[in-house]
Specification:
alpha/beta, Rossmann fold, seven-stranded mixed β-sheet, four-stranded antiparallel β-sheet, 11 helices, 31% helix, 26% strand, elongated
Length: 336
């Protein structure tokens, strides 16, 4: 079965007198299977938005191959446009129009049956507020209206670029629920976001891009496993034994960091060796637990955007990293 979206060797070069030649995309590859929520991640300037705009025919590539639903694009965009919904950058709506008027206008322009307007309003949770003017909407409601516009044609593939950008925690949770519901209905969703904790919660698979090239790809759990740092937290029965334990482990070639009530060990392949080594010194372990790597630390390492290059940041909670990648265009929906 062909992939819903496939990109092979995509290249795009920009030239300017001031900055010279810049490779925005340098042989980039991407594959998204049917029914997935696929996370597309990259820091500012990585080529992420350029990829999406090229895929949708808004930018002409310099080389490579792209297919959507088995059809090569951009040549076949007229064939597949009705099966793709996309929000790339924040769309602009007429502020004095109601949500229903906005969607009715888009539906009429796209030959979409009028009853579909109420269906998508229900899907995004705006049906009760559909008669209110868009200028009265919160940012989260405007984001949901944007998603509604992309859903009008009941697409097989939905592309969302930073749909949770600027939302409060409640709005982010609503967007998460909406995305999962769409995927469970059989739709394939490509989700670009800087909120890495959300990507880890929502997505089945992920592609990470840096400097125009793919640096990671696959199911989220496999990507995390491939980049596990082997960090282990060690606590002893007696806190006063920590200095002696640190000395013994260091002499055995184990890299570690000391903390007030525990030791953090790096690059440990077999944690049981630590227990045996300390027991031989009369030091007894009360806790020996691997520290799971999260998507944020993998992203920071692979894209060289960590505060200390090449070092994992082991954290207990996923944090938001950076802001949305912007190109300065007004943007808008595609395929509505």
């Amino acid at each position: 079965m062909p992939a819903v979206l496939e990109i092979e060797g995509l290249r795009k070069t920009y030239k300017s007198r001031r900055r010279g030649t810049r490779n925005a995309l340098d042989g980039f590859n991407m594959r998204v299977e049917a029914g997935q929520v696929h996370g597309f991640l990259g820091p500012n300037g990585s080529g992420k938005t350029t990829t999406l705009r090229t895929l949708l025919g808004l930018i002409r590539p310099d080389g490579g191959r792209m297919t959507i639903l088995g059809h090569e694009v951009p040549d076949a965009l007229p064939v597949v446009a009705g099966q793709v919904g996309a929000i790339v950058e924040s769309p602009q709506f007429f502020p004095h129009f109601t949500a229903r008027d906005t969607l009715s206008l888009l539906a009429s322009a796209g030959d979409v049956p009028s009853n579909r307007v109420d269906e998508v309003l229900e899907l995004v949770g705006l049906r009760e507020r559909a008669g209110e003017r868009v200028k009265t909407y919160s940012l989260g409601m405007k984001q949901r209206l944007a998603v509604a516009s992309a859903l009008l044609k009941d697409p097989k593939l939905l592309i969302l670029d930073e749909p949770a950008n600027g939302l409060d925690p409640g709005g982010i949770r609503e967007m998460r629920t909406l995305t999962r519901n769409l995927a469970e209905s059989g739709m394939t969703v490509v989700l670009s976001s800087h909120i890495l904790g959300e990507i880890q919660l929502i997505c089945d698979s992920v592609t990470i891009i840096s400097l125009g090239r793919r640096v990671a790809f696959g199911p989220v759990d496999e990507v995390l496993a491939q980049h596990s740092s082997g960090a282990v937290r060690v606590r002893l029965e007696a806190v006063t034994d920590l200095p002696a334990a640190a000395d013994a482990l260091t002499r055995s070639g184990i890299r570690l960091t000391g903390h007030a009530d525990h030791l953090m060990l790096a690059g440990v392949d077999k944690p049981a060796v630590v227990t045996r080594l300390l027991a031989e010194q009369g030091l007894y372990v009360s806790e020996l637990s691997p520290v799971a790597v999260d998507l944020e630390s993998v992203f920071l390492e692979l894209t060289a955007t960590a505060p200390v290059p090449g070092q994992h940041r082991q954290v207990d909670q996923s944090l938001k990293v950076g802001g949305a990648e912007q190109s300065g265009a007004t943007g808008g929906g595609w395929g509505a």
